[in-house]
Amino acid sequence: MSARLLQVKNLQVAFGGKAVVHGVDFELAAGEKLALVGESGSGKTVTALSLLRLLPDARVDGAALFSPAAGQGGQAPRDLLTLSERQLRGVRGKEVAMIFQEPMTALNPLFPVGDQIAEVLELHEALSPAAAHEAAIQLLAETGIPDPRRRATAFPHQLSGGQRQRAMIAMALACKPRLLLADEPTTALDVTLRVQILDLLDDLAGKHGMAVIMITHDLNMVKRFADRVAVMEQGRIVEQGQVAKVFGAPQHAYTRKLIDSRPARDPAATAPQDAQPPVVQAQRLRVAYPVARPGIRGWFSKGEFVAVHGADLQVRPGETLGIVGESGSGKSTLALAVLGLLPHGGALQVDGRAWAGGSANRSLRRFIQVVFQDPFSSLSPRMTIEEIVGEGLAVHDGALTEAQRREQVVQVLAEVGLAEQQFPGLLGRYPHEFSGGQRQRIAVARALIVRPQLLVLDEPTSALDVTIQKQVLALLQRLQRERGLSYLLITHDVEVIRAMAHRVMVMKDGQVLEAGEVDRVLDSPQDPYTRKLVAAALDV
Fold first, then answer.
1. Contact predicate 235/19, CB 8 Å
2. What pLDDT band is residue 179 in, cutting at 50, 70 and 90?
3. Is residue 325 in some structural domain?
4. Helix (H, G, I), strand (E, B) or coil at 131
5. Alpha-carbon distance 122 to 107, whole Å?
């Protein structure tokens, strides 16, 4: 093992007198990759942020001894927790850098990404603006962004999720730090992009001799990337060691629980009702967006970008149709068209009737409902749980009295596992008072309240921990079995497709490349792109 780079001793973090991290101890060698794993609230992100003192309202005790760089022999390790703010500014970004979980919120929306990377180089490396800009372009190229000179002038919203994450990595690595803190760097990315980002970090860590602390709940990613793992539960490290040893023979019950939380197929899953007419059916569905033409032609006419090219699909009663593909493949656009939220060409029928969306089909609107990817942003923070869940009844069952509406709200909340006995004052609470998994249950209840036959599930578990993901998938499987629901499942997670779907469609660049029974498509893929997706899922 290389020389010790970081030694954390008895780290304790408290907010308002309430301890959230309790006596954490771990060490990290130069060039080593350590994964901190655990559910949300386990303290892993707080532990990492405390090392750079990025928790202004927290009390941090203990020690984080950071060894001097090569060529500074004779100097004692510095305690990061006792450095002055001025001393820390010399450490942050230069010796210890961080990749934050959501690049869209971590990057400044008002400045091009190249300028943001160049700013780090001007501050820590004293480069001129011109030299810093050229170095930023080189860093973007090193992270694999195509056409880096043009991308350097782009604002964050003009980049894809994977490109924004690469820009964040370029910024973090600008000064060749000796320690990188990576907080869920691949959580919201497609499976192929996850592999690319992990390979990139692995390559750059080896090239620069950089140590990495990876904060994640993705155990497949840990097995692929890390040398050692530390498992955190309720602010304590309950188990740590070499990845192969911990995952091969876990000693702690919590570690075993995490390892056993992979999505599982319900053996009593509802069989699709083949003899019944499909609940939704589309032929040659096409979605296109107008775009400006270059030059003088743009004065007289618009061009178009085709997001979905003539897709055919049908979902039968009690069936789950999974749609899988990378970002930009058209799967979410297809779902929005099915929901009647986008204009489209081709034929689309819901419950045997032509579906045009909008107010013209209000009677059909209750037939098809949606559960979005991020429950925190899809639930209004200004409405109570009773108002959120009962809103659909106010639109579709206006004759109900307030007492009748409340009774139905209570019933559907209990059906998704949220009862007044467990959550006193449940109906009067607001979304921020619940965990991510509980908010997703509220979102499911909101969809179910109007008794739909089809739910569109847009990445319903991608933002959740593995244990919560398994609970939400089990809930959806139970509801399908009990209510005979049909699902249109949009996801980039092949494991979720395998657990939930009866049939699957694989999309790329707006086209359906392959479709069929889920076992046939995933076990014997015919299209090279499908084989790539399945191989990437096995690789992380």
1. yes
2. very high
3. yes
4. helix
5. 17
